[in-house]
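Reminder: ligand-aware prediction takes two inputs, not one.
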Amino acid sequence: MNKKWYVGVDVGGTTIKLAFVTSQGEIVTKWEIPTNKMEDGKHITSEIGKSIEEKCEELGEKKDSLISIGLGAPGFINMETGFIYHAVNIGWRDFPLKDKLEKETGLTVTVDNDANIAALGEMWTGAGEGAKNLLCVTLGTGVGGGIITNGQIQHGVNGMAGEIGHYTSIPIGGAACNCGKTGCLETVASATGLARLAVESLEYHSESVLKAIFDKNAIITSKDVFEAAEAGDKLAVKVIEEVSFHLGLALANLANALNPEKIVLGGGVSKAGPLLLDPLEAQFKRFALDRVEEGCEFKIATLGNDAGVIGGAWLAKQG
Ligand SMILES: [Zn+2]
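Here is what comes back for the chain with zinc ion:
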């Protein structure tokens, strides 16, 4: 049996996504297993190995069909050694992920962080459409980022490149961020940040439909804000304008430095489509250099939850 498939693995706080992927980036099969966080996540590598073996059996394939593994994980990672310094959501601390998984599977393992493999996936078969200079931003519970230059994901000197979520948007008096600082882009442009801005404005906008939602549910979601904006609610529109301002400013400044061909937006907030994209592009145009803006196109990520496993396979393919 010839070797033919790469294994993409995307480790998250709740589930681990796995896929066998062809050298063209097509998913042969994909599946998920729960993330076993017991005993600081020490069983995860053996469970990944076992799951891969079971999937081979299920498909009637020998393990020889697999070429290598590319894996994305959250947290602070040494990409060269595949050593995880700290992954809060998983429980790993000083965990030799690459070595352990290589021992379990007998396959070469390449490791990168989860936002970076999602960016690589979008570059390979998603919204990147062959572009080699990309800025990828995931607007989810937090804000993640990946910077791809000449087809290569950028790591910087110690793996921190692409931490776009911690671009300082509000230098003085901003909300507290998970990183320990204040006023990061993540505090205004994530799903959580957007909802917080809406809640904070309710006091002055009791006429907003969001007020009734908040009184009923004691919470507002980003989805509530986009639905209200769609229906013409003034407060909701104002909140989205504020988010677009901060995001547009941050992306324009980054684009002026990086001159990307595409800016790919993923994550739950990006599903708002033109409601977010139109004001965002207007703000981007306002702050970006003309030639930077002319050369750059906004795209919504197309791979959804598959971006990580496809990017993992791309990483494996590079070896
Ligand atoms: Zn931060």
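Residues 5-121+306-318 form a domain with the Nucleotidyltransferase; domain 5 fold (CATH 3.30.420.40). Residues 59 and 317 are 22 Å apart (CA to CA). We will return to this case in the review session.
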